[in-house]
TrEMBL record:
Residues 50-131 form the Thiamine pyrophosphate enzyme N-terminal TPP-binding domain. The gene is iolD. It comes from the Bacteria. PROSITE patterns: TPP_ENZYMES (PS00187). Keywords: Hydrolase, Thiamine pyrophosphate. It comes from Borborobacter arsenicus. InterPro entries: DHS-like_NAD/FAD-binding_dom (IPR029035), Myo_inos_IolD (IPR030817), THDP-binding (IPR029061), Thiamin_PyroP_enz_cen_dom (IPR012000), Thiamin_PyroP_enz_TPP-bd_dom (IPR012001), TPP-bd_CS (IPR000399), TPP_enz (IPR045229), TPP_enzyme_TPP-bd (IPR011766). This is 3D-(3,5/4)-trihydroxycyclohexane-1,2-dione acylhydrolase (Decyclizing).
Length: 616
């Protein structure tokens, strides 16, 4: 008879998590980097006690906000290229709902995180329990049902034995390259404490190694044939290149074929910025070097990308009517987007086999030379935009230039929302794979500091530079205190343009009046003077406000020597952005308005929409 052990459901859960492993750099390591927890009445007695019992094998970290602790877990997974991940637990009610934004972020970006919110009593005796949201027509609903549309797998545990199939399915989803995304197991608070005789085999150590599916022979042949016919082929490298750790295969493929590449926000750093065939950013926030090739390309090999609107210029960028799009992706849903020729495979395996199929073939030399010349021209233009300035309020580009010069390509730069993603996508010169950490799939304001903390946990020996605007900082900054508490140093560069400068610029570009974005244009009795440096210092950070690019460079050099999180504040111009490069983005403008500026913007908008490839 199989051996059994009597445990509570919560104890079984934590024991199971503590014995799941993976392989990293030839060594076996725990696949869970730990559990982020903010305890409340819905998880402290059950899961809290269980986590305490395994604290040496499965460390528990205390966050300051449920959303930000889940962001930290996601940042950890992203920095680990999805090979390792974390869990996050909250109580029932507002604690749980706080994590829904993080779940959506992970869902959009295809990143693994295990969310363990407390839930109502399965027995319904104390119904309604504190913080319970009641549905008048459905007694089975709780706030955790909010997680359903933003989870790859959702389950509510209403009996202790249900945790066995639920955890097995959770691990399949978290480690599957095609299905990967957030898993939510809603834990009824009474069931957390109920005991069951679990089989000992459930707690046997298991090692999860990522699946690497190889391409179908027919799809491979069709792809190779399409590329051989191309005169102007282009590669779009997405985040899947990094998650597959396929950068070496990509470099070999590019060098063998002479096909230039460009990178999405998620794919930036797939190749070093100084590679002669890396045209860098593509799309709305792209470089002129990349976008001019994209307009002409007759074959687009899209690797590991969702082909979202910022990449495609709302499907107006790829203008060659005779183009063929090829989707090399581990997820068939993405591989077949926009009537693409699908090549369903792991990025590294797909590139290796495609390289063999194309052996001896090269893109026309004139196309490759054209790409290299365009890159050189863009680099010269970018150098002008990032050069040192004596302006009272420097541009974001000039701040980026200072950070690049002092911190270097060896550091990891992390960002999420506002104007910085566009400027960094164009201008940051990434080095090693993963050194550009963008959360631009969901573009979540407030991800930056928490995500930076997670990235630092994944790469404790690397310099993590968080670049953040004042708007995002005000939304979610409390994990500065956690970084200090854990001894995990971040360098945070806070650009203060006194409002939501990026959206203010978009508002102006679409004919709108300056309204409700910059602090001065929002309803107010008096304008606040926010001392960000003092605020950061109050949480234990080393902090400083600088008044020029020269002072910023001095402060950054000092920050490299600091052993504690350092926040450097600099005021920037809210109205200036990099005009070179970039492409149109479909932001709908009113058909009817009393304002002439809106009418003019609508006319231009209608002209741009005619370029969209509706049939693709």
């Amino acid at each position: 008879m199989a051996s059994k052990i009597r445990l509570t459901m919560a104890q079984a859960l934590t024991r199971f998590l503590s014995v799941q492993t993976t392989e990293a750099e030839g060594a076996k390591v725990p696949i869970f980097g730990g559990v982020w927890a903010i305890f409340g009445h819905g998880n402290v007695a059950g899961l809290g006690e269980a986590l305490y019992s395994v604290r040496d094998q499965l460390p528990t970290f205390r966050g300051q906000n449920e959303q930000s602790m889940a962001h930290a877990a996601i940042g950890f997974a992203k920095a680990n290229f999805r090979r390792r991940f974390m869990a996050a637990t909250s109580s029932i009610g507002p604690g749980a709902v706080n994590m829904v934004t993080a779940a959506a972020l992970a869902h959009v970006n295809r990143l693994p995180v295990l969310l363990l919110p407390g839930d109502v009593f399965a027995n319904r005796i104390p119904d309604p329990v504190l913080q319970q949201v009641e549905d008048f027509g459905d007694a089975t609903v709780s706030v955790n049902d909010c997680f359903r549309p933003v989870s790859r797998y959702f389950d509510r545990i209403t009996r202790p034995e249900q945790i066995i199939p639920a955890l097995n399915r959770a691990m399949q989803v978290l480690t599957d390259p095609a299905e990967c995304g957030p898993v939510t197991l809603a834990l009824c608070q009474d069931v957390q404490t109920e005991a069951y005789d679990y089989p000992q085999s459930f707690f046997a150590e298991r090692t999860w190694v990522p699946r690497r599916p190889r391409p179908d022979r027919l799809e491979l042949a069709r792809t190779a044939d399409a590329l051989k016919k191309a005169k102007k082929p282009l590669i779009v490298a997405g985040g899947g290149v990094l998650y597959s750790q396929a950068s070496d295969e990509l470099a070999k493929f590019v060098e063998a074929t002479g096909i230039p590449i460009c990178e999405t926000q998620g794919g930036k750093s797939s190749l070093p910025d100084d590679h002669s065939l890396n045209m860098a950013a593509v799309g709305v926030t792209g470089t002129e070097a990349a976008n001019r090739l994209a307009k002409e390309a007759d074959a687009v090999l899209a690797i590991g990308t969702r082909l979202q609107d910022f990449t495609t210029g709302s499907w107006a960028l790829f203008q060659n009517a005779a183009k063929t799009i090829i989707g090399l992706n581990v997820q068939p849903f993405d591989a077949g987007k926009h009537r693409a020729l699908p090549l369903v495979a792991d990025a590294a395996e797909g590139l290796a086999e495609l390289g063999t199929a194309l052996k001896g073939w090269k893109a026309p030399a004139s196309w490759t030379l054209n790409a290299r010349e365009g890159k050189a021209a863009w680099q010269a233009e970018a150098a002008k935009m990032t050069a040192t300035t004596n302006a009272a309020y420097p541009s974001e580009a000039q701040v980026i230039g200072a950070v690049q010069r002092i911190m270097g390509a060896g550091s990891t730069v992390l960002h999420a929302a506002g104007g910085l993603p566009g400027e960094l996508h164009k201008l940051w010169q990434a080095g090693k794979p993963g050194s550009f950490h963008a959360e631009y799939g969901f573009s979540t304001m407030g991800y930056e500091i928490a995500g930076g903390l997670g990235a630092k946990m994944a790469k404790p020996d690397k310099e993590i530079v968080v670049m953040i605007g004042d708007g995002s900082y005000l939304m979610l900054n409390s994990e500065i205190a956690t970084s200090v508490m854990l001894g995990l140093k971040l360098t945070i560069v806070l650009l203060d343009n006194r409002g939501f400068g990026c959206i203010n610029r978009l508002q102006m570009a679409t004919g709108g009046a300056n309204f409700n974005n910059l602090l001065k244009d929002a309803r107010h009795e008096s304008l606040p003077h926010i001392d960000f440096a003092a605020h950061a210092a109050s949480m234990g950070a080393i902090s400083q406000k600088v008044s020029s690019i020269a002072e910023l460079e001095t402060a950054l050099a000092a920050a490299k020597m600091n052993t504690r999180t350092t926040v450097i504040v600099i005021e920037t111009d809210p109205l200036v952005s990099t005009q070179a490069g970039g492409f149109w983005w479909d932001v709908a403008i009113p058909e009817v308005s009393s304002r002439e500026q809106v009418k003019a913007a609508r006319k231009t908008y209608e002209q741009n929409r005619r370029r969209q490839n509706v049939g693709d």
